[in-house]
Amino acid sequence: MRNWRWGLIGIVFLAFVIRTEAWKFSKAQHEHTERISGSAGDVLEDDPVGRLKVFVYELPSKYNKKILQKDPRCLTHMFAAEIYMHRFLLSSPVRTLNPEEADWFYTPVYTTCDLTPNGLPLPFKSPRMMRSAIQLISSNWPYWNRTEGADHFFIVPHDFGACFHYQEEKAIERGILPLLQRATLVQTFGQRNHVCLKDGSITIPPYAPPQKMQAHLIPPNTPRSIFVYFRGLFYDVGNDPEGGYYARGARASVWENFKDNPLFDISTEHPTTYYEDMQRAIFCLCPLGWAPWSPRLVEAVIFGCIPVIIADDIVLPFADAIPWEEIGVFVAEKDVPKLDTILTSIPTEVILRKQRLLANPSMKQAMLFPQPAQSRDAFHQILNGLARKLPHDRSTFLKPGEKILNWTAGPVGDLKPW
Amino acid sequence: MGSVERSRKKVQLWKKAIVHFMLCFVMGFFTGFAPTGKSSIFSSRVSVSNRSDFSPQPLEVLQYQSKFQSYNRSLLDGSPAAVPEATSKSDRDAYDDHHPPKISKEEENEGDLIPRKLVIIVTPTSMKDTRRGVLLRRLANTLRLVPQPLLWVVVEQQSDSDEASEILRKTGIMYRHLVFKENFTDMRAEMDHQINVALSHIEHHRLSGIVHFAGLSNVYDLSFFDEIRAIEAFGTWPMAFLSANRKKVNIEGPVCESSEVMGWHLKNSSNLSTDTMKPAIHVSGFAFNSSVLWDPERWGRTSSAQDTSQDSLKFVKKEVLEEETQLKGIPSDDCSKVLLWNLDISHSSVKKMVTDKR
Amino acid sequence: MKLTALQQQSRRSNSFRGSSPLDSSMDGAIKSPVTIFWLVLHGLCCLISLVLGFRFSRLVFFLLFSNTSNTMTSTNLYSTSSFGNPSEPLAFQSTLGAVTSTSTSLPAMNFTTTAASGTSSSRVVVGRHGILIRPWPHPNPAEVMMAHRLIERVQREQRMQYGVKNPRAVIAITPTYVRTFQTLHLTGVMHSLMNVPYDLVWIVVEAGAVTNETASLLAKSGLTTIHVEYGKKMPILWEDRHKLEAKMRLHALRLVREKKLDGIVIFADDSNMHSMELFDEIQNVNQFGAVSVGILAHSGGDGEDETAVAQKEEEKNSGLPVQGPACNSSNHLVGWQTFNSATFMERSARYVGDRAIVLPRKMEWAGFVLNSRLVWRDAEDKPEWVRDLDEVAADEEDVESPLSFVKDASVVEPLGSCGRKVMIWWLRVEARADSKFPAGWVINPPLDVTVPAKRTPWPDAPPELPLPAGEKAVVLQEIAEKHATKTRSPRKRRSKRKHAIRTIDERVSTRHAGEN
Questions:
Q1: Is the peptide bond before C445 cis (omega within 30 degrees of 0)?
Q2: CATH of the domain spanning A208-365
Q3: How confident is the model at residue A181 (pLDDT cuts 50, 70, 90)?
Q4: CB-side exposure of B244: number of CA atoms within 13 Å?
Q5: Is B242 helix (H, G, I), strand (E, B) or coil?
Q6: Residue whose C-alpha is closest to residue B148's, from A282, C159, C144
Q7: What is the pLDDT of residue C481?
Q8: Helices and strands counted in chain A (H then E)
């Protein structure tokens, strides 16, 4: 047991060394051009059309359109990707109407559109809804039972993805919905070694309104005069009166250590010039909140502000296509008190390079879900990610009579009909 | 007999030794449980983070602690303290992996890094003044030339207009644009409120620097900003008030011998505030160390003076006049050079002048 | 608090080292090498046991910690989490029972993040975390400076990438003379020019003579300045004044011609105010451009009516009155927007110090920029629509604006989104002509000396006021109050500044930035 673990550590370490070497090599080759080095750059430019075919299940509108009608606020919140992705796929050239030739199957369920009166998406009903949808497709079409969902993908953009709970502890307790254990999940949540992040999931950026951001663009020659910028909560007093739970204490630490630093333009007040201010900042803090990701990641990239990612083991959106290491700065949560030292000791050339990379339009494009879709946008990146998983592994398809999923697993409450 | 005595003595000696050892062991044992807390969380982390071994190194910790202590002491002295080099190299810091030669580069540029005191310029502005756009630009042009670090705090009433933010954004100066919701009819009350908004921002953030209120109608000689950086607690200087089509130039301000303020020069006696018989100093006529706001104990007084009123401006003004011993005349030789001119050409001011007369 | 505790701790261990040999020396009175050896050995052993105890306690601690953490409260964990970070995740994990943790062995704890990929359970630390606050309270000033240098570098890079490519030099022409308002006005313009990120030559033409007063001001700018004099005193009537200023500007243009200065000529009056965007915008000019000028009409008097009228004018135009090129919707120059001076005609100021509105000329010089090659004697590609400088200067009296240089006003290039954007402001405000100010603005004698109302210790400013009949201005006798704790005898009056009238001589002074 012990030996096995040591061996594993060794392998991980070796893999890391090889990877960094590869990075160095690719860097050396592409240093002069400010294109994204390595494989990543080209991946962003990929056109998914012709590389995969997606079949979109026709579901009764109570699974999607009716919910949206009930509460159109879901069109603007951070999880709106599930709605826009559905709309996009319906008119996308990768869509096929013939399920026999499909590589991927998509089930359009809006699981996070069930908002509380305050507009908070609390996914209490989501598991039952998802279960009901899967039951429906598995009884009406033969494709689910063929693979038990291994060639199906689902958009689950909620805080903890398919764990379907807004509290991390509860979400971890629940784990990913048993019925989705074989499916590919497309989610905003990304935390390495977390029960709610399944291997092979596609991490996507949260939805940020593209038109609104576009409207606030200011000329790129506006001098960047803020060193570090952050607007948002430091303490979530309502949900975490003691402090130390929210953002694992990292945000509180940012405030306590840097409120008195003139270089840190940090506040809880959200100014009307928020987007403009980001465009005149050099570093934008993207600390974790209750979940590791935040819309600031998207905003920072769009506005050319170097994201300072403070979220240990975060899995970033399209990490296989966007060179986050190159454009962002990663600061461990325990190093927050040294943030000023860390940021000021980055060589100027490195910062300028990060800024040049951030200026790359394909990077910005990949963060957005524009209406109508544009080439290389986040929709296309999702498709690219799905295409890269093709052809399906042999283990995708079950042997006749084989059953893996346990339909009665999970909390009793989830088994009730929706 | 002797041998028995001796052996007994020996046994006793051994016993004593063992007791000592035990004592020491227990002592060490309990030292292991010794104090913990926020600060030591961090410090012990730093000191051990380079080691894969988890065993603590008390000596290292202690050294580190004493280092911090000296920092604290130097901070109490008011002199800027150096932060220790980060001893731990985080393997998560992206740039660390890819750009190892950063230290040498830093050293190269070390030469031109002369730390200066932060200057905090507070400028109240109002939409009601049609000329504030141009005056804001003029002041920005001046502030842009001041050596860093400088923080410009611009306060205005919340509005839909983004005129001010647009002007400020293009200046390239590090600024904070504060807005407030309250509505004022009286210009003077509004300005006082604006200044108080800025002061509470400084207090809330515990910003440390020299605060000066720069009205839009001021014009500065650049050396002014070097001079106010030398202020320890409070500073004051003569100010020239120009007015259109007048013959007389009014100079108001302190009268000094070397940098010591001997008295005041005012254009007329009505400027004496009646209750204190102290001169009413112009709001742009002084600067002060911001720690007066958030660390009154450091200046040898209780915080009660501040608690009694929300009016930080009043508080500061009072302090300036009461603490003549801590008041530094500027420029430091004998504060006889005018470095700051005021010409009020804003419409609102003209209006105010008119209404005041009645 | 913690610091002192640790200090005490160290002191304690120090006292141990010292006291244990002392103790043992009590019973062994005989000093022999053997006893000393034993004493040393004893002390050493004591020390070793101390260290052993310490180590042991840590070990016990860890064992205790990993086994009984289930019973511990989270606050306990918080306060004891200082013992190395590796233990922290594990402790939290097991306390809160987030998931079953499979690794309890100590070496594995160091690798919680890397080694976990094999297990399906979560390694994520859920629960209370410490809020890390560093012991030093203030930012490191050296780092602040470093950050500012970085910001500066970033801004330079932005200019390089998005700014004007191959910028031309800027030649600024400023007529001036020594007076009460000179420092205030000229300092403002100087600061604008100092911010210009391009090569810049500043030609300052001083009426009367080159003075130290002006020269010392210019010296502060660190700019490349050409400071010349124009041998006529500044007249007191506004009408004459505008004419003289025009001549002074033409004189500067002659210098541009003689020295073959290459660049874009702007006319910056010493009382103008500039937006920095102007200097980027004028880089777009090809030959002869015009920009809009915001007019800050200021009466300076305290009469309400002037203010009200000016205000009305401003409100009508929704903002400040503007003078400059007027364009149609397709961005072609169709005419000129002028300051509507008709309403103020009867209230316009005639002389300096007149309490009325100083009106701008029909077209102010400040609203024009031109390619310096237009005034060169023999430039190759000189367009045929331009009149030669000599020709223009021949009838100096009639030169109202740079428009005299062009035969056809349609060639003027309107700048600043076709005149819609105001980037330069015009203001004329002066003290009364007989106003005096301390030389170099050094108050001498010091202020605590009572200044008699009729006598001023300050030297006279150049021009004398020929008071026209019906003078409205009232000399206000403002008595300066003395609030000194100590009286001093008045010092001797400063010797009058010399007014050496020299023939036109140029002083070309080139100073480099960094002086200021």
A1: yes
A2: 3.40.50.2000
A3: confident
A4: 25
A5: strand
A6: C144
A7: 33
A8: 17, 11
Give residue-wise pLDDT tens across range B61-76: 223 333 333 333 333 3
Do C431 and B242 make contact, defined as CB atoms within 8 angstroms? yes
Which residues of chain C from 448 to 467 reach within 8 Å of chain B, CB to CB?
A: 448
Interface partners of chain B (CB pairs < 8 Å, 3 or more) are A, C
Average pLDDT of the residues in A258-265: 93
Mutate to test the interface with B, among C49, C155, C157 (most CBs of B within 10 A): C49
Distance in angstroms between the alpha carbons of the first and the last residue of chain C: 47
Is it true that the peptide bond before A60 is cis, omega within 30 degrees of 0? Answer: no
**Above pLDDT 70, what percent of chain A?**
90
pLDDT in tens, A369-384: 998 888 889 999 999 9
The secondary structure of chain A in percent helix, strand, coil, rounded to multiples of 5, reads: 45, 10, 45
Nearest chain C Cα to A173, which residue?
A: C98
- Residue range A195-221, pLDDT digits in tens: 888 888 999 999 999 999 999 999 999
Residue C447: its pLDDT value, please?
57
Q: Does C175 touch chain B (CB under 8 A)?
A: no
Kindly report the backbone phi and psi dihedral angles of residue B174, in degrees, each rounded to the nearest multiple of 5, phi listed first: -75, 110
Q: Are strands B250-257 and B340-343 parallel, antiparallel or unpaired?
A: unpaired
Enclosing H/E stretch for C310: helix C304-316
| Number of structural domains in chain C | 1
Which CATH number does the domain housing residue C243 bear?
3.90.550.10
Could you read off the pLDDT of B164-219 as tens digits, one per residue? 999 999 999 999 999 999 888 888 888 889 999 999 999 999 999 999 999 999 99
Tell me, yes or no, whether C389 lies in a domain: yes
CA distances from B134 to B217, B341, C336, C340, C508 (A): 11, 17, 22, 21, 32
Strands (E), C257-395: 264-267, 273-274, 288-290, 292-296, 322-327, 333-337, 368-371
- Expressed as residue numbers, the domain containing C184 is 165-291+362-418
Residue C371 lies in a domain: yes
Record: contact C99-A13, CB cut-off 8 A: no
Residue B46: the pLDDT is: 32
The verdict on residue C206 lying in a domain is yes
Q: What pTM was computed for the model?
A: 0.73
**Cβ atoms of C312 and C300 closer than 8 Å:** no
Query: Would you state the structure tokens that stand for residue A364, as one six-digit string?
Result: 């910005």
Q: Is the predicted ipTM greater than 0.95, yes or no?
A: no
- DSSP E strands, C126-243: 170-176, 200-207, 224-230
Residue-range domains of chain B with CATH: 119-356 (3.90.550.10)
**Beta bridge pairs of residue B219:** B341
- Cβ <8 Å between A338 and C105: no
- The region that residue C222 occupies, defined by phi over 0 for left and psi between -120 and 50 for alpha, beta otherwise, is left
Residue of B30, B115, B245 with shortest CB distance to C57:
B30
Task: Compare A3 and B345 and report the one with higher pLDDT.
Answer: B345
Q: Give the single-character DSSP code of C347.
A: G
Q: Are B137 and C273 in contact (CB under 8 A)?
A: yes
Amino acid at B23: L
Residue A200 contacts C, CB cutoff 8 Å: no
What is the predicted pLDDT for the residue at B131? 84
Query: In degrees rounded to 5, what are phi and psi of residue C195?
Result: -85, -10
CB–CB of C437 and B249 under 8 A? Answer: yes
**Cβ pair C96:A221 closer than 8 A:** no
With a cut of 80, say whether residue C390 has pLDDT above it: yes
State whether C277 and B170 contact (CB < 8 Å): yes
Whether omega for the bond prior to residue A372 falls within 30 degrees of 0, making it cis, is: yes
Q: Residues B104-133: pLDDT tens digits? A: 334 444 446 788 999 999 999 988 888 888
CB contact at 8 A, A412 and A184: no
